[in-house]
Amino acid sequence: MMDTTKHRLTRRALISGGAAFSVLGFPVPFARFLPAGMQPVALAQENILPGKSGLSVLSDRPIAAETPPHLLDENVTSGEHMFVRNNGLTPAVTAEDVADWRLVIDGEVETTLDLSIDDLKNDFEEVKLQLQIECGGNGRKFMTPAARGNQWTFGAVSCANWTGVRLRDVLDRAGVKSTAVYTGHYGADIHLSGDPEKSPLSRGIPIEKAIEPHTIIAYAMNGGDIPLLNGYPLRLAAPGWPGSCSQKWLTRIEVRDREHDGAKMTGQSYRVPRYPVAPGTEVPDEDMEIIQSMPVKSLITAPQTGARVSAGDVFEVRGHAWAGDNEVAAMDVSIDFGATWTRAELSAPVNRYAWQHWRVELTLPEAGYYEVWARATDDAGRMQPATQPGWNPRGYLNNLQHRIAIFAL
Ligand SMILES: Nc1nc2c(c(=O)[nH]1)N[C@H]1C(S)=C(S)[C@@H](COP(=O)(O)O)O[C@H]1N2
Ligand SMILES: [Mo]
């Protein structure tokens, strides 16, 4: 029995660079026997999110943790505040694994590439881009009727400085065949069952998105290592599309002559109905289409919800806004439950796919309870709705307005 397992793990090791499931940085030799859904006891007492602070943990196996909006106030999201969405188990990644890490580019290419991280750094032009990545299920909690999945509120979004190489340049080196239409991505994380043959997540993107110059293979974040939970030492960043397109712990990109069919690519995963449906409708798989660009959205990052201000005094309200493949064209806020709106100042993105910052000065006329509502409009004229937009079975793309509570004293 050990022999079979060893064989399978060796095969996995070839694919994954040797990484295995870890608890607090320790490899777990018998991880394959730990029942799915059972949490390692060590994690019950310890901080289960090494390198993170202040995140709300929605699930611990696999890890799903979101950032409270006020901790996203930074213009560039820091590693400690970057949300985490795992579909499987975080791989252990040692210095040796990093030195031995391979990224294979194969499939519909003239030449299969088998690259180390140094090859990526030495042989391709380095790019630095600020890119927003949002989980397709961000906002799911506010879908009625409820949709199953992680009950994200507002904080499954980040915008960090990423350093890496364009996927396009790597694909050019491999020579993409005219038959190529889609990519399939593979990472070194481990299926909850521990089965090394199964992948927790393997999504892909149309070749047009793959060769878009902002789709990059990143080996650094905010000038340092990518946090382990966010894909160290190598990840894809396909900004503006569901976060699931940005494979963490990246080991292989297969160029395909058809849509990808990996884990969470098919059925109802990361798909919405092709036509509007009444809330609660069951939609057959063949009527679902793959989500591409994420919709326009914004966050109020200061003040924190529940803040107290003095009636009649000016206070600053600020946050960020983003719009998938689009740009945000306008940002408005309301203190009267949407009856009237005030235009906020809005910055241009530092590069395409970076979120934009907005700020406005407000005054509350008299003592009492208020809410600030924030509403972004994209450059195609699409505006965030006050309540859920089109309901869909898995609760994706909920870009309803962010609201905070404010008490005027
Ligand atoms: N290998 C791998 N990559 C992955 C995932 C995963 O489970 N495994 N989750 C995806 C999903 S659903 C999202 S939303 C983003 C989240 O990125 P973050 O955890 O770095 O914030 O990673 C994506 N990349
Ligand atoms: Mo996600």
UniProtKB/TrEMBL annotation:
Keywords for the protein's UniProt record, in alphabetical order: Metal-binding, Molybdenum, Oxidoreductase
InterPro entries: Ig_E-set, MoCF_OxRdtse_dimer, Mopterin_OxRdtase_euk, OxRdtase_Mopterin-bd_dom, OxRdtase_Mopterin-bd_sf, TAT_signal
Pfam families: Mo-co_dimer, Oxidored_molyb
Residue ranges annotated for the Oxidoreductase molybdopterin-binding domain, each copy included: 95-262
Domain Moybdenum cofactor oxidoreductase dimerisation: 290-406
Gene3D superfamilies linked: 2.60.40.650, Oxidoreductase, molybdopterin-binding domain
Gene Ontology biological process terms, A to Z: sulfur compound metabolic process
GO molecular function: heme binding; molybdenum ion binding; molybdopterin cofactor binding; sulfite oxidase activity
Cofactor(s) the protein needs: Mo-molybdopterin
Name this protein carries in UniProt: Sulfite oxidase
